Amino acid sequence: MKVKMLSRNPDNYVRETKLDLQRVPRNYDPTLHPFEVPREYVRALNATKLERVFAKPFLASLDGHRDGVNCLAKHPKSLATVLSGACDGEVRIWNLTKRKCIRTIQAHEGFVRGICTRFCGTSFFTVGDDKTVKQWKMDGPGYGEEEEPLHTILGKTVYTGIDHHWKEAVFATCGQQVDIWDEQRTSPICSMTWGFDSISSVKFNPIETFLLGSCASDRNIVLYDMRQATPLKKVILDMRTNTICWNPMEAFIFTAANEDYNLYTFDMRALDTPVMVHMDHVSAVLDVDYSPTGKEFVSASFDKSIRIFPVDKSRSREVYHTKRMQHVICVKWTSDSKYIMCGSDEMNIRLWKANASEKLGVLTSREKAAKDYNQKLKEKFQHHPHIKRIARHRHLPKSIYSQIQEQRIMREARRRKEVNRLKHSKPGSVSIVSEKKKHIVAVVK
Amino acid sequence: MSAAGVAESLLALSQQEELEDLPKDYPLNPSEDEEDIDGERKHQKLLEAISSLDGNNRWKLAERSEASLKVSEFNVTSEGLGEKLVLSDLLGPVKTSSSLAAVKKQLNRVKSKKTVELPLNKEEVERARTPLEQEVFNLLHKNKQPVTDPLLTPVEKASLKAMSLEEAKMRRAELQRARALQSYYEARARREKKIKSKKYRKVLKKGKAKKALKEFEKLQKENPTAALEELEKIEKARMMERMSLKHQNSGKWAKSKAIMAKYDLKARQAMQEQLARHKELTQKLQAASESEEEEGDVEEEGELLVPDAVNEIQMDADGPNPWMLRNHSSGTKEARIQDPEQLPEPVAHETPESEEEERPGAEEEILLNEFEERRSLRKKAELNQDTEPVSRQEPKDSSSQEVLSELRALSQKLNKENQSGKQKVSSARTVRVVQRKDPTEEEEEPLLLHRPERAQTVEDLEELGKEGCFQNKEVPRSVLEGQQLERNPNNHPGAPKEKKKKEQMIDLQNFLTTKSPSVKSLAVPMTIEELEDEEERDQKRMIKEAFAGDDVIRDFLKEKREAVEASKPKDVDLTLPGWGEWGGVGLKPSAKKRRRFLIKTPEGPPRKDKNLPNVIINEKRNVHAAAHQVRVLPYPFTHHQQFERTIQTPIGPTWNTQRAFQNLTMPKVVTKPGHIIKPIKAEDVGYRSSSRSDLSVVQRNPKQLTVRHKNQLKKNSID
């Protein structure tokens, strides 16, 4: 007698090891899983709501400074180490994991104007109001040794900023002029000027490392090539630029934090029109720093808040503020792109999550998958009105909120006037200038 | 007594019983009786006479209302005759033969006879005494007008009977339409009548006066004779005023003003104004002629100025069909409209007047005319086929007349309201009409008095007479026919223009769908009509030019139809081919099965734009869903389909395999926690030499670059 029976290949249903997930046979027939869009929409809605529920970006406040924090620097090799300079000339080195100050140096008399680390991470440079440039060892002095800088350079004028080359032993300072120094020398290799105003900040390009940009009080942004004796070109804006920051992933792109509450992202090849104008701050933007991924940047403003902007969006995706945080003077995005640090007037350094609702710590694979899925859903349904409303909702301090309203009214009035002017003038005599072009005065080569 | 005698008596009895149903004073027609029956009659009369001798009437005994002893089967009586009945007589064979048959015949004849017609003096009526009457009768006969029966002419009756179902339906529809139109205009007129604003009235009156004056001036230039007529009219109006004494201080208002005048300046002014008007109106004009004819005219006019309703009420009292009866007053007006070209003089004057003054009224008047015309045409076609030789050409006219009259009644009614406001102008018009028919009316006077109900038809006749048949009664039929044929085209030209108007007014539904027929079929081009039409045509042409090429309305209608179709719920077909029966290529499931498994969706609620012909209301839009929907196409997308596709593609693990899910949800930028992300390097993206991207430098000083370049290359190699 022949017995008929079902036979299956065990490979199809038996897992190889105990650690493997059980194989779950699934039928993906779409008719069995109807209402894809509504179901995903609900999921997206829930994800968005949960995002807002878990949005708790503030991590820690590093206090210890006895004056406003004027500058911040990241350690190039260690994620946990952060350096900060205060308005009383004190420099502190912090350990972020312990959230403690590990070292304090009285570096300057008067403000510490600028601080930067050497690309190898063994030493750092500071400039201060006392017209000196000092190089310090990253590690603390040994037992019984005195806290002394490695080198001290006495300058003729006050230095307002410093930045180190990303690969070579060269650094640049700015004040009356941009000086490029060899670490081994006490006099600059070359100094470049274009105009006579004080230069507030100088930054090396992290990719095209010979390039550097500076911004001066006479409202211009000047680009230099280190290998040349003269500056490359400059762009003059409506108002003064406080800082610039290069995009670490796109060599040509930099963003300027301006006094007119806006940030301008420029392509250095075409300075006459900024790539994007980022508007949301309601007061002067004091500092800007790119995320190491180059997709976003964070800006610190005099309006006591920091904002995170996507590079290609003109509006911020996030705003951070606390009651106690005063005018934010400096801001840095950590090298792992997860955290943001900001130093403010009221002597604190604050640590924020770059992604407000992100879960810290190690994620299991399923958690990660869920996170990715939710992120994708939010992206997919971001234009739907309810989701958009929930995702955009932020609480703002009253001062900022009212300022926003006020400025909206002002902007509207200006626009209306422009439209009226256009309407009542001879056709062709008046043209509406786009927001991007409006703020650029001139480009000089 | 013989058997024959018994039979006689029985017969007499039966006859009496039959005769009792008839009125007693009704004499049997002697000529109808047979001869032997005549004898019997005599005998019966004799018996009657004898029985009546003793005073009491025996007849009553013969009559029975209920079962009684007297009519039992056991004792048969013959009390009515006072004779004894013998059994043997009854047992003997009854002779039924010829005499009884004759009786039956007579009985049948009696039965079939209708009730008596009351006015029996037919001959008397028909007889014409005076030559005038003869003439009138002749005319009536010619047109098959009923002389005795006031309601319908035989032709009318015939046409009523001949009407088929469809035609009746159509006619009913037409009537309904007309009625709707009527009610609409009535409502409008009522509304307008209700306006109490004195200012409005004043302005209206003033405007009319001004217009009349202008017209008069114009007329004076163009047509002095017509102007003279007009002047006469004015004179008449003045006379009317004079007679009415309306502007003397006798009215209620005037009295109150007189009281107030002492104190109120305004009242005083009003009074003075009124007095001035009175003076002006009562002043005798020198130009006015004082002939007796004119006086007569005035009188007639006075009659005519009495509102039509007065006549109507009279007729309503005895006339059963108000639709038919109302005609009489509209007849005159109708005549004017129908053949304005008949009178060459007033035409020039009349057309502008009717255009300006009676715009609303004239519109539907002519529209109704158009109804009539269509009907008459149809009738004509039908009747031409008719083989009846008696009324060859008259039917055309009279049958159409009948229909016309109905519609005329409508139009007249509609106009009445409009006219009441414009007494002055309309009076002028009526005067002219009266003048036109003067000669005929004198002749008709006795007839009119004779039959007030038929006034309408007489007037119609008079109109016919205008056209020629009145003057010479002996006009051969062919001539008449020819004239009628002439008349029809004359009626035409007004029609097409008005058709369009009508459709605008009535068919809200078909407003967009109907096309105005722009072709004038067989119309002889008429100068007047052209003048009227010219403006309109100009406008139409301009519009046509502007929208040449694109038929916006049709496109819209098509779109709407599609929208309606799309919004209709579809039936669900659940038939499974091959289930329970043979299947395969070319085999269809049976009709029964299809019927069984076709789920019919119920009719949804009516569309909101059902009654709005030029609107499409989208009912798909759900307000609650709309709150969740994207309103504007988001930036990177250029077409809504792209966006919809991205939304419709599910990315979840429910719909995708694990691998696909991972790929779909992979973030664009992945960062590892705890790792420093270094700035990008040229090498990372495939560039070997870093200086290649140094475009600005390359442009600036290539010489210096070469040295530097070498250095850099060295360094890179060291690294």
UniProtKB/TrEMBL annotation, chain A:
SMART domains from the UniProt entry: WD40
PROSITE patterns: WD_REPEATS_1, WD_REPEATS_2, WD_REPEATS_REGION
Cross-referenced InterPro entries: Sof1 (IPR007287), WD40/YVTN_repeat-like_dom_sf (IPR015943), WD40_repeat_CS (IPR019775), WD40_repeat_dom_sf (IPR036322), WD40_rpt (IPR001680), WD_repeat_DCAF13/WDSOF1 (IPR051733)
GO molecular-function term, one example from the UniProt record: ubiquitin-like ligase-substrate adaptor activity
A single cellular component GO annotation: Cul4-RING E3 ubiquitin ligase complex
UniProt repeat feature WD, residue ranges: 62-104, 278-319, 321-362
Keywords, in A-Z order: Nucleus, Repeat, Ribonucleoprotein, Ribosome biogenesis, rRNA processing, Ubl conjugation pathway, WD repeat
Keyword Coiled coil belongs to the record: no
GO biological process: decidualization; female gamete generation; maturation of SSU-rRNA from tricistronic rRNA transcript (SSU-rRNA, 5.8S rRNA, LSU-rRNA); protein ubiquitination
Primary location class: nucleus
One Pfam family matching this protein: Sof1
Location in or out of the cell: Nucleus, Nucleolus
Domain Sof1-like protein residues, every copy: 354-440
Coiled coil: none
Keyword Nucleus: yes
The protein's annotated pathway: Protein modification; protein ubiquitination
Gene3D superfamilies, per database record: YVTN repeat-like/Quinoprotein amine dehydrogenase
Function summary: Part of the small subunit (SSU) processome, first precursor of the small eukaryotic ribosomal subunit. During the assembly of the SSU processome in the nucleolus, many ribosome biogenesis factors, an RNA chaperone and ribosomal proteins associate with the nascent pre-rRNA and work in concert to generate RNA folding, modifications, rearrangements and cleavage as well as targeted degradation of pre-ribosomal RNA by the RNA exosome. Participates in the 18S rRNA processing in growing oocytes, being essential for oocyte nonsurrounded nucleolus (NSN) to surrounded nucleolus (SN) transition.
The family this protein is said to belong to: Belongs to the WD repeat DCAF13/WDSOF1 family.
Record-given protein name: DDB1- and CUL4-associated factor 13
Organism: Puma concolor
Gene: DCAF13
UniProtKB/TrEMBL annotation, chain B:
Magnesium as UniProt keyword: no
UniProt feature, compositional bias: Acidic residues: 290-303, 353-367
Gene Ontology CC entries for this record: small-subunit processome
Keyword Nuclease among UniProt keywords: no
Biased composition annotated in UniProt, kind: Basic and acidic residues: 371-399, 447-457, 495-504
A matching Pfam family: Utp14
Keyword terms of this UniProt record: Nucleus, Phosphoprotein
Subcellular location: Nucleus, Nucleolus
Comp. bias (Polar residues): 417-429
Spans annotated as Disordered: 18-42, 274-504
GO BP terms, alphabetized: rRNA processing
PANTHER family reported in the protein's UniProt record: U3 SMALL NUCLEOLAR RNA-ASSOCIATED PROTEIN 14, U3 SMALL NUCLEOLAR RNA-ASSOCIATED PROTEIN 14 HOMOLOG A
Recorded family membership: Belongs to the UTP14 family.
Protein name per UniProt: U3 small nucleolar RNA-associated protein 14 homolog A isoform X2
Source species of the chain: Puma concolor
Gene: UTP14A
